[in-house]
Design a protein that fits this description.
- This protein is α+β, with helices and mostly antiparallel strands.
- The protein is built from five helices and seven strands, in the order αβααβββαβββα.
- It has helices at residues 4-11, 37-52, 55-74, 112-120, 183-188, and strands at residues 17-23, 81-87, 90-96, 103-107, 125-129, 133-140, 143-151.
- The chain has a four-stranded antiparallel β-sheet with strand order 3-2-1-4, with helices on one face. It has a three-stranded antiparallel β-sheet with strand order 5-6-7, with no helix packed on it.
- Strand 2 and strand 3 (90-96) form a beta hairpin.
- The longest helix has 20 residues, at 55-74.
- The protein starts with a helix and ends with a helix.
Length: 189
Amino acid sequence: MIDARTFVTLQELPEPLLTVYLNTNPGSPSNCRSIPGYVAWLKTEAKALLARVGNSSKSSLQTQIHRVEQYLHDERPGCAGIVIFAGPAAWQVIPLHVEPSNELHWGKPHVWQLSCIADRHKPTCAVVIDHSGARFYARTSDGLTQFAEQEFKIDDSQWKQKEHAHMAKQGTRMPHGAQRDLYEHRVES
């Protein structure tokens, strides 16, 4: 998912940069059309953004908008949302497991919505422990994914001897014979 390094990397991308947040959820009715709703939204907002920017950066912005549109035409995202950072010397696509609000920005990389998503959806882990060991699972967009396993190893070098080795105090009942417990029973405990 999104970690602190990602935010540092995004802040260091060369400007000007087109930042595009898109709700690409394939289950949304508006995204099930021949032209998905997020593509139609992007075309409308791109025209409005082109009208607001100065003449000096219009051609660069138009090039980046075309790159994003071509990407969306070639690669139909199957995730709930994506963030695209596109610039003359940069291209980064981040799939999201939550639906973002559609946004379009030109200039500095806009990471505010991404940081809000990262804060709300912190990575989580589940640990399953049994007699054989521990298994570690991470929550991802696909459900739980196992990422590590640790076997239990018992160090019996410090265990007390199985024989009875001390004398009972006067007045207490002393059990007779060796008081062995089964090795397996002790391991199970």
